[in-house]
Design brief:
The chain is an alpha/beta fold and 387 residues long. It contains 15 helices and ten strands. The two termini are 25 Å apart.
């Protein structure tokens, strides 16, 4: 049965769009072999209690944990309490603690479930007057909490450190202090300023070559404490360059939501693993593509991932910080949550035209798993918007 929906277009008109058949992405029969892959997972808010960004986040815990089970069912790891979960954009440390605690406990009930959790300094308001000791103490609190609950740490970039550091030496000092204390290897996270303007000049320089070498020096000094590094700079060549300079035991986790197929594919000598926000939205396709890569079927790998790239580039278009809106909208269209509301009202981060184009690109990628439901939900959004 063909399905048609009338969608608004940029020129002010509305046009009919005929949906295609959804792809049949099967649940994997075994674990991924050639790559480690995490999806940075979003949270589902409680629509009855959610207010503004000035109030603590109200989470629908069952729907939030159900989404993590969805990601694990496709063989992907969960990167918990990261920027995709709106850390720093509505999800405070207090709520993040409960999220981490609940997700780590949930992972224990699922054989082979992979999870790592974000540790930052978001107890602190970024300020030039913040001391490095305060930054270190904030990191220590969050790392200690995750390790207390037997979780692996993703050491997130710190707004407080970016605001207070006077030079690259201050970054080296703070990371040295934390990495000397961790109980198991961590994943470092270098988040570009397109994702968070407060992180401009991270590692002590706006020159990316200089910043990269500061980061590499930290990794080399603490190679036994570093599992890998995720870089989210949306710069394919930068990632390739840094990947070649890493110590052999340290993984590169791509955070490049524009160029992930080529970076993950790589070659037999050099490739990236994955820690991606877009994998939250495209989990079935990501799983199928990575299993094709395991089997050496590069043609199928490329064919599955190719139509997801326009969707990802659309979701992560500038202002990139609002990509979370598109990720949650995908979950809503696919029935993983009953509403399109977000922590801090971030559902308003993208226009109706943006969401309409997202709908089309998701369909072209075969990622509307129940087209009738997706159409009904898209029509509801249009109606509420007066279209």
């Amino acid at each position: 049965m063909s399905l048609m929906i009338r969608l608004p277009r940029a020129d002010g008109t509305r046009s009919d769009y005929l949906l295609s058949e959804p792809s049949s992405f099967l649940y994997p029969a075994h674990r991924l072999q050639s790559r480690v892959a995490y999806a940075a997972a979003h949270v589902v808010c409680d629509p009855l209690l959610t207010t503004s960004h000035t109030q603590p986040a109200c989470i629908d815990w069952e729907a939030t944990l159900a989404y993590r089970r969805h990601l694990w069912s496709y063989g992907l790891g969960v990167a918990e309490a990261m920027d995709t979960a709106q850390r720093g954009m509505g999800l405070d440390w207090s709520t993040a603690q409960e999220l981490i605690h609940r997700s780590l406990a949930e992972a224990q009930t699922i054989p082979g479930a992979l999870i790592a959790c974000g540790a930052g300094t978001d107890q602190l308001a970024p300020s030039p007057s913040t001391s490095l000791e305060d930054v270190e103490a904030a990191y220590e609190e969050q790392c200690g909490f995750i390790e207390e609950h037997n979780g692996q740490i993703i050491l997130m970039a710190s707004r407080a450190l970016a605001a207070s550091a006077k030079s690259s030496d201050d970054y080296v000092r703070v990371y040295d202090t934390i990495l000397r204390q961790v109980k198991r290897p961590v994943i470092l996270h270098w988040l570009g300023d397109m994702f968070d303007s407060a992180l401009r000049g991270y590692w002590g320089s706006q020159n990316l070559d200089t910043a990269m070498h500061v980061c590499l020096d930290v990794i080399r000094e603490h190679v036994d404490a570093v599992d890998g590094i995720k870089i989210s700079l949306l710069d394919e060549e930068r990632e390739r360059t840094m990947r070649h300079l890493l110590p052999p035991t340290v993984r590169m986790y791509t955070g490049d939501d524009f160029n992930y197929p080529a970076l993950i594919r790589g070659d037999e000598h050099s490739y990236s693993h994955a820690l991606l926000g877009i994998f939250d939205a495209i989990a079935p396709a990501a799983s199928a593509a990575l299993h094709a890569l395991d089997e050496g079927d590069i043609e199928r790998y490329e064919a599955i991932f190719a139509p997801t790239v326009p969707l990802s580039r659309h979701i992560f278009q500038a202002p990139t910080v609002y990509y979370k809106t598109g990720v949650v909208f995908m979950a809503y269209l696919n029935g993983h949550q009953s509403h399109f509301r977000m922590v801090a009202g971030l559902e308003n981060g993208r226009s109706l035209l943006h969401l309409a184009e997202l709908f089309i690109l998701a369909d072209k990628a075969g990622l509307l798993c129940d087209p009738e439901l997706a159409v009904a939900r898209m029509q509801q959004i249009l109606k509420l918007s007066g279209c």
